[in-house]
Design brief:
The protein is mostly helical. It has one domain. This is Elongation of very long chain fatty acids protein. Belongs to the ELO family.
């Protein structure tokens, strides 16, 4: 497939411009990796298709098993994995993050729409945005990294059988909602700047996709928060499923 980018070929948002940078940061050729992502961005659809296919057939298979897989050890290990560094590896990390759902399916837990919709679409969008060298990319990745750092620690502790205050789970979901609000604002602001003719290294196609995705995430996370914590059910705590 032909490379679909770029509207702003001189963009350098992924090159290190900090007061201190490690040697491997300076040696990283972001334009080469962005070019590869652009030439192969359709690969993200293959990952998402395989992911949704696993969900469908995995649930069918698990319905034939009298007991779910326990997977306590592997689940705990998975949640304490070291986060990928910087933007490119952040994008690539979205593919192995699909394994989160493997644990949900094999343990016969309830798989909500928000969980697999978020996983499948965020992989495609982040891949596309990176190949576009979107100027909003650092906002997206920094917010996501921050939320995930707390979230995966929380789920790793739960997987180890450690009881965590319900208020912490609520705060994580609130932080996810705030992330979606901020993501929507940043994307709309970038759209405004670009519409006004101001220099903004992002394509309109990425902006349209970003606005649609962030708004849909906000709606779904808000619904999840309300139904999980204010649904009026005594078993509402059981609805606290992992969503990232």
């Amino acid at each position: 497939m032909d490379n679909f980018r770029l509207e702003s070929p001189q963009s350098s948002i992924y090159s290190p411009n900090y007061s201190f940078a490690f040697k491997f940061e300076n040696e990283h050729n972001y334009r080469k990796t962005a070019g590869w992502m652009g030439d192969n961005w359709h690969t993200s659809f293959y990952y998402s298709l395989a992911y949704v296919t696993f969900i469908f057939f995995g649930k069918i298979y698990m319905s034939t098993r009298p007991e779910p897989f326990r997977l306590k050890g592997p689940l705990a290990l998975w949640n304490v994995r070291i986060s990928s560094f910087w933007t490119w590896l952040f994008i690539l990390s979205k593919a192995p993050e699909l394994i989160d759902t493997v644990f949900v399916v094999l343990r016969k837990q309830k798989l909500i729409f928000l969980h697999w919709y978020h996983h499948a679409t965020v992989l495609i969008f982040t891949w596309y945005a990176y190949a576009d060298e979107a100027s909003t990319g650092r906002w997206y990745s920094t917010m996501n990294y921050s939320v995930h750092a707390v979230m995966y620690t929380y789920y790793a502790l739960r997987a180890c059988g450690i009881k965590i205050p319900r208020q912490l789970a609520m705060s994580i979901t609130i932080s996810q909602i705030l992330q979606m609000i901020m993501g929507t604002y940043v994307t709309i602001y970038a759209y405004y700047c670009k519409s006004m003719g101001q220099p903004c290294g992002i394509s309109f196609s990425t902006l349209y996709a970003g606005i649609a995705i962030y708004i849909s995430y906000f709606i779904l996370f808000a619904q999840f928060f309300i139904s999980s914590y204010f649904g009026g059910s005594k078993s509402s705590s059981k609805k606290e499923k992992k969503v990232q």
